[in-house]
């Protein structure tokens, strides 16, 4: 990250719509916007972020920043010196990175520093030592890297928990993204993001796993006495005609034809002897 110029711009924002336009006299810089209490909405260019309490937005100073703060909320916006080129920010213009402020994390330390700056300052531009500015921008870089790594880990953990929950409720015909998100206590948006990270979708994953289980049961001689429709219904696919179409599209032949080609059950003693079956007294 480039050396800091030593100038920090601090804004304490209460209720209202605030336009922070510093691009004209600050060609570079890194914004750190903290929702210290309540919520806030930020806009830079075409990018809009709705931020919950104790979230921090890190983005470059590439344009005018608008911050809308509702009643009983407080937001701190600090423009730090430095260049954003080596920060792990989204590639889309002005996308920014939203960080969850957590105790014991770098983001928690950064939030504490921003609160201190806001309390000790009366707003506006202030000159700070270059070493202090360099340390602040280094902390921002560490917080971004930590959030990116944590985010990847959290997404993978959610995907794993989701697939386990799906396996346990494949029989439930009402199982869908909304029901799964409720069960896991996450938003449907977060759930869909976890599956997109794996190149999958919730609905497709559920459908494919149901078809896989039906295929296993249709091959199993122990379930040969069960009608095809019953097997499908046991795995949440109660529309027999729809199941047949899905099965053929997935495995290349209708379920009844697939079952006919599977090993047949051995029903009696003579067949077991002819087949070389092992008989235990």
TrEMBL record:
Keywords: DNA-binding, Transcription, Transcription regulation
Domain of life: Bacteria
Lineage: Bacteria, Bacillati, Actinomycetota, Actinomycetes, Micrococcales
Annotated organism of origin: Arthrobacter nitrophenolicus
UniProt name for this protein: AraC family transcriptional regulator
Record keyword Lipid metabolism present: no
Annotated HTH araC/xylS-type domain residues: 160-261
Cross-referenced InterPro entries: AraC_XylS_family_regulators, Homeodomain-like_sf, HTH_AraC
SMART domains named among the record's database cross-references: HTH_ARAC
One matching Pfam family: HTH_18
An example Gene Ontology molecular-function term: sequence-specific DNA binding
Coiled coil: none
PANTHER family reported for this sequence: HTH-TYPE TRANSCRIPTIONAL ACTIVATOR RHAS-RELATED
């Amino acid at each position: 990250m480039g050396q800091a110029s030593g100038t920090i711009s601090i804004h304490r924002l209460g209720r209202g719509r605030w336009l922070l336009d510093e691009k004209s006299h600050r060609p570079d810089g890194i914004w750190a916007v903290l929702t210290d209490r309540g919520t806030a909405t930020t806009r830079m260019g075409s990018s809009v972020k709705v931020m919950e309490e104790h979230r921090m937005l890190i983005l470059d100073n590439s344009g005018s920043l608008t911050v809308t703060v509702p009643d009983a909320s407080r937001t701190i916006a600090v423009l730090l010196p430095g260049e954003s080129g080596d920060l792990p920010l989204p590639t889309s213009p002005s996308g920014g990175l939203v960080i969850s402020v957590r105790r014991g994390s770098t983001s928690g330390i950064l939030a504490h520093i921003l609160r201190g700056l806001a309390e000790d300052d009366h707003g506006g531009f202030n000159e700070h030592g270059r070493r202090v500015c360099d340390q602040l921008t280094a902390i921002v870089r560490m917080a971004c890297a930590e959030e990116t790594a944590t985010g990847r880990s959290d997404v993978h953990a959610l995907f794993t928990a989701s697939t386990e929950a799906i396996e346990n409720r494949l029989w439930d015909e009402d199982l869908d993204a909304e029901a799964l998100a409720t069960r896991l206590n996450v938003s449907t948006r977060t759930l869909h993001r976890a599956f997109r990270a794996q190149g999958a979708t919730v609905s497709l994953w559920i459908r494919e796993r149901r078809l896989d289980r039906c295929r296993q049961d249709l091959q199993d001689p122990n379930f040969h006495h069960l009608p095809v429709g019953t097997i499908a219904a046991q795995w949440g696919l109660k529309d027999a005609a729809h199941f047949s179409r899905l099965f053929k599209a997935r495995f290349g032949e209708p379920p009844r034809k697939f079952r006919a080609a599977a090993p047949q059950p051995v029903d009696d003693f003579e067949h077991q002897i002819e087949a070389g079956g092992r008989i235990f007294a």
